[in-house]
């Protein structure tokens, strides 16, 4: 029991660990709130409460991401042009993915600043731009994980790669929902489905972290 508590504390004391937990709670509350309001109506007390918690957690994560640019830049510079990658295709796909990830943050920052009145501009276009960049990054991740690997990599990493692909597909489903209406199913997914997709993706991310893998998500 002591080890379990220490493990949880260590996770909560790290930025990434706390963010993963906040993400999971955010989407779980959205799932519960969506299910309750779908069944009992928008004015149901508990449904509204869960959705309010989800909204506040999402806003908190957006504010915390104001400080992610430098860490992303450090990662991008460290990876560079991926000269250590043996496969040229994987190298350039990864570089393109890093570019999308790097551009995502300033677009989201501008959108947030516009929403809170720090700058005077329409936030919609910037939220759309950040959503598009996130979607492109997810597509790049799906393609990269889906490329053929050596027999050794297939043997030891197939489950991890499949989980990463499934997680990215869940996030991509939500990304399209957050696109402007008229683009595929933009704005059409029910609240509970958005929560479900995000919860699945978040739980996969937590599992990947626990076993030493990786799964990114916003």
UniProtKB/TrEMBL annotation:
Biological process, per Gene Ontology: peroxisome fission
Taxonomic lineage of the native organism: Eukaryota, Metazoa, Chordata, Craniata, Vertebrata
InterPro entries: PEX11 (IPR008733), PEX11C_met (IPR026510)
Transmembrane segments: 125-142, 191-210
Subcellular location: Peroxisome membrane
This protein's name: Peroxisomal membrane protein 11C
Species this protein is from: Pyxicephalus adspersus (African bullfrog)
Any one of the GO CC terms: peroxisomal membrane
Keywords: Membrane, Peroxisome, Transmembrane, Transmembrane helix
A Pfam entry, by short name: PEX11
């Amino acid at each position: 029991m002591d080890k379990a508590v220490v493990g949880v504390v260590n996770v909560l004391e790290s930025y990434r660990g706390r963010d993963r937990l906040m993400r999971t709670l955010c989407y779980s509350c959205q799932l519960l709130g969506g299910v309750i309001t779908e069944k009992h109506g928008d004015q149901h007390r508990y449904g509204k409460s869960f959705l309010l918690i989800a909204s506040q957690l999402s806003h908190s994560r957006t504010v915390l991401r104001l400080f992610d640019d430098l860490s992303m830049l450090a990662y991008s510079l460290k990876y560079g042009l991926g000269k250590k990658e043996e496969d040229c295709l994987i190298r350039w796909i990864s570089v393109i993915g890093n570019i999308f990830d790097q551009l995502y943050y300033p677009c989201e920052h501008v959108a947030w600043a516009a929403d809170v009145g720090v700058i005077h501009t329409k936030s919609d276009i910037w939220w759309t731009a950040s959503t598009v960049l996130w979607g492109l990054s997810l597509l790049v991740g799906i393609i990269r994980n889906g490329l053929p690997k050596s027999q050794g990599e297939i043997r030891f990493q197939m489950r991890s790669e499949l989980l990463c692909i499934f997680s990215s597909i869940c996030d991509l489903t939500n990304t399209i929902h957050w696109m402007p209406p008229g683009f595929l199913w933009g704005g059409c997914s029910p609240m509970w489905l958005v929560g479900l997709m995000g919860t699945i993706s978040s739980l996969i991310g937590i599992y990947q972290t626990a076993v030493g893998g990786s799964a990114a998500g916003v």
